[in-house]
User: What shape does this take?
Amino acid sequence: MELTPDSLVYFHIGSLAVNATIANTWFIMALLTGGSALITRRLKPDVPPDRWRTTLEVIVQGIESQIREIAHGPTTLIVYFSGTLFLFIVTSNLMTVIPGFHTPTASLSTTTALALAVLVAVPLFGISRVGIVGYLKTYAQPSPIMLPFNIISEFSRGISLAVRLYGNIMSGAVIVAILLSIAPFFFPVLMDMLGLLTGVIQAYIFAILATVYIASASDSDSSIDAAKARTSSAQQD
Amino acid sequence: MSIDWVTVAAQLVNFLVLVWLLKRFLYRPILDGIDARESEIAEKMGEASRIRESAESTVANYQQQLQSLQNDRTTTLEQAREEARAEREALLVQTRERIRQEQAAAKRLQERQASEYVTELHQVSAKAILDVVNKALSDLSDETLEERLVMHALSSLKQQQSAAHPDGSGEAVELTLTTHNTMDEAARQRILASAKSLWNDCSIRFREDDQQPPGARVQFGSSQVEWSVDTYVKALETQLQRQLESDAGRSGQKASAHDEQEQEQEQEQEQEQEQEQEQASEDRLS
Assistant: This one.
């Protein structure tokens, strides 16, 4: 039994082996981009919005409002980054219900790549907000003694992001596969339903934590604490 | 649980590409559309607010104009009513004055006709009396009327002189006798004889005057006695005048009573017309 779709190679492009993770990622990217372009291609102020456009507006405004509650100041770039994280992860997680579809988020490579993106984005957003000196000073807060611990914390939370998402999604896929071999008619459906819920929650947690990490580079502690509390409650659910 | 770092790199690139694609095809169009719609809604709300303010201002202006027109209409109606009332009063005054003038003219005409009638009656009566008296005196006596009048006048003169001067009968008397007609010599002798029977020493100077009425006027010094048919005619005229005045007074009282009754009827009719006009004006106003 394969635990990762990285080993399932579909074809090669030069020396790059296009495995199920990359191919399905492209598929999800095409799905998201094509759907968005299809809905927003005739978007004009004088044309009344249809139900698809309204749905997209609700999703985007929901993402924006969630980010505004956490981060202060300009949030446009954070919306692009964290919103893309959420949409990609939630779409990937919801695709687990399709039989034979190997969701990219069940690959540790994908979650590691996303965690690396967050790990790189956090200092970039922080430096763009408070400058490189101001950002580096945060590692010596509240005391220079905390510098190594803060550096370890920076990497450990990236690892935790990657492993948490991978573990939840991969475990769900593995459990469904095992149940299919044991009780193929009823229990896999229940687990799929549970997997949908878990996938949405994990996408939310990943995006919110990424936003919190980015906001922590320049925002006050109060908003970050509030966001962390909200994330903790979501994890408990 | 293994990590394919080539896949990691590819996924990292894929994610960054996805970020750019979603920014290009999802976030920017949606957020720009929302911003555009919000600005459009704000602009339309502002325009609607301006239109509403303009409409409210227009409505207020129209209401003010309507109120002004109603006030003008009321004022104009009241003014027209007052003018009509004043004109009606003026016409009534003119009509009453004209009626009064016509009544006065009719009364003057009536008086003039009565006067002319009295004059004519006076003349006719005088002529008839003269004719009757002349005929009666002619029938009763041979003396002419004027001779009898002269005799009567001499008697009256003698009585007046005796009353004024009881002891002066012996003085010489010179009388002047003026008659309308020329008296013949026989009549003059009879008159002289009659005068001498009254006065012992008297002489008479006879004169004629065409302007004098038939009769005799005897002058003696400062005394004068006139006795003519005018005396009777004037008495008759006075009596006739009294009679005519009494008749005219009775007819005048009847006419004035009739006029008062007509004026009362006219006033009642005018009051009824005023009430009808006021009622019609109130109905039009309501």
